[in-house]
Specification:
- By secondary structure, this protein is of the alpha/beta class.
- The chain folds into 2 domains: 3-181 and 300-461, Aminopeptidase (3-Layer(aba) Sandwich); 184-298, Alpha-Beta Plaits.
- Helix 6 packs across helix 7 (264-285).
- It contains 14 helices and 12 strands.
- The chain has a 7-stranded mixed beta sheet. Strands 7, 8, 9, 10 and 11 form a 5-stranded mixed beta sheet that branches.
- It is globular and about 85 Å long.
Length: 507
């Protein structure tokens, strides 16, 4: 490792306390998709203080921002997320299910750590550019609404990612490894049916049931499932059944649909078929309906060149280590869910040799935390989940790593994740991710051939072109089921509120 890179990594370490404080504050806020007002304001205030040029409300999304430092090319983007999930309020550092706020929100996907770790990486890269006078620009992008808002996809529709030479990020997981392979594209749409109320017994002929329309739509989609590709998926949730009185013909009802496919073009076509079913359900019931586009995102384009850069730096920097107390906590937490003995790693599911290596590493670890780096795997991988990082990967070379923030086999979107996110285990993951991303970015700034190779691979893999799943007139929208109580806040425009009291400054 060069002295310059060592200094950049040391700059990340020097900000350890700040990174932990920011991660914990975002954890405390636990704001849902596109409603991360305090979280975005915190990042903007910290980054401005650290010498970045901050632009708020980018792409007309109030809780999105960019923070840049440097000038000229190359331009390296680092992606941050900070939205939480509903119904996952949980006390931090607990091995029991204990809600902090009844029915409240929690960071079940670890985005409080993700954003803080991405910020740490940007701080390290800034230190490198500043001290070495290397030409180039680093931009930290604040990307809200990954859990049902797809801000990165809206940004992709507006062409934002085309300006980058590369984009890198990370995600908290139960493993230390480089992520590879594709993911599912996804489109979310809400359907509101409106009928005519009536007495269900006395005058049923006068009523037109919106609830019947929702149920007929669900039946129609059930038949559709027999006539789509094996990797496609359609999910739904009835968000409004119209009322609680069975003797009333329900005049309103709503259903939220999610269409997935491993190819975004197929998802777009499948969504059209779901729209036709909604139209048919309305015709059959004599109701009307309103369609509201919620979000859409593309499948992920892998980039092996960038993955190798990330892996080499991961190897050099190693992985986080844990105290006996931290290991004891993780071991106790692992007893609260099934699957703690799962063989870890993306490669283990596709390569028998790698699976055996993973088993041996797990046995050697001796505790629930995976305190080792998994081998690099770059075979064909398909992950059924979805991420709006996919839309970034269609417009610029992109790659990401995973750093262990939870015990082995810990289920995603769980209270166990939320508990771990507010511990030193989580802080270590965020800081270490920042170091690996920072070191990889330094390589990209100082070795232009790496960016050239990544670009050539990107052009080969995206030859078919990007099909944006978001209509030209769509705007980021909060599903009705995710709206917080109280007055609505604007989604568009740079609307930010200070998240500090006088005695809460971090700097």
């Amino acid at each position: 490792m060069t002295k310059e890179k060592q200094a950049a990594v040391a700059a990340v370490e020097a900000k350890r306390d700040l990174v932990a404080q920011v991660a914990d504050s975002i954890w405390d806020y636990a704001e849902l998709s596109l409603q991360e007002t305090r979280s975005a304001a915190l990042y903007c205030e910290v980054l401005e203080k650290e010498g970045f040029t901050v632009e708020k409300g980018i792409c007309n999304i109030a809780t999105a921002f960019s923070a840049s430092y440097g000038s000229g090319r190359p331009v390296i983007g680092i992606l941050a997320e900070y939205d939480a999930l509903s119904g996952l309020s949980q006390e931090g550092g607990s091995v029991e299910r204990k809600e902090r706020v009844s029915g409240g929100c929690g960071h079940g996907c670890g985005h409080n750590l993700l954003g803080a770790g991405a910020m740490a990486a940007a701080l390290g890269v800034k230190a490198f550019l500043e001290s070495t006078h290397t030409p180039g620009t680093v931009i930290l992008y604040g990307c809200p609404g990954e859990e049902g808002g797809a801000a990165k996809a809206f940004m992709a529709r507006d062409g934002l990612w085309k300006q980058l030479d590369a984009a890198i990020t990370w995600h908290p997981e139960d493993t230390n490894e480089v992520q590879t392979g594709s993911s599912n594209s996804c489109i979310q749409t809400q359907y509101h049916f409106t009928g005519v109320p009536s007495h269900a017994a006395g005058a049923p002929d006068r009523g037109r049931s919106a609830l019947d329309a929702v149920e007929l739509m669900n039946i129609g989609v059930q038949f559709l499932r027999e006539h789509m590709s094996d990797k496609a998926r359609v999910h739904y949730a009835i968000t409004d059944a119209g009322g609680r009185s069975p003797n009333v013909v329900q005049p309103k009802a709503s259903v939220l649909y999610m269409v997935r496919s491993n190819h975004v073009a197929e998802a777009v076509e499948l969504q059209k078929r779901v729209d036709d079913i909604a139209r048919g359900a309305a015709l059959m019931t004599g109701t009307t309906y309103e369609k509201k586009f919620i979000d859409g995102l593309a499948d992920t384009v892998t980039n092996h060149t960038l993955e190798k850069v990330l892996y080499e730096n991961f190897q050099e920097l190693g992985v986080p280590t844990y105290t006996p107390e931290e290991n004891a906590f993780a071991d106790a937490l692992a007893k609260t869910y099934p699957g703690a003995d799962t063989v870890p790693g993306i490669g283990a599911a596709h390569d028998p040799e790698l699976a055996e290596q993973s088993r041996q590493l797990r046995r050697k670890a001796g505790h629930a935390m995976n305190d080792f780096l998994l081998p690099l795997y770059q075979g064909e991988v398909f992950r059924p989940g979805s991420t709006d990082v996919g839309d970034v990967s269609w417009l610029t070379p992109a790659a990401q790593i995973q750093v262990a923030a939870w015990p082995n086999g810990c289920p995603g979107h769980s209270w166990q994740n939320v508990s771990c996110d507010r511990t030193e285990i989580g802080h270590k993951a965020a800081v270490h991710a920042g170091k690996v991303l920072c070191a990889a970015a330094v390589d990209l700034f100082t070795q232009p051939q790496l960016l050239q190779e990544a670009r050539e691979e990107f052009l080969r893999r995206t030859e078919s072109g990007y099909v944006c799943p978001i209509p030209a007139d769509a705007v980021p929208t909060i599903p009705d089921c995710n709206r917080r109580s109280g007055p609505r806040r604007a989604l568009h425009g740079a609307v930010f509120y200070s998240c500090f009291t006088d005695n809460q400054k971090f700097f």
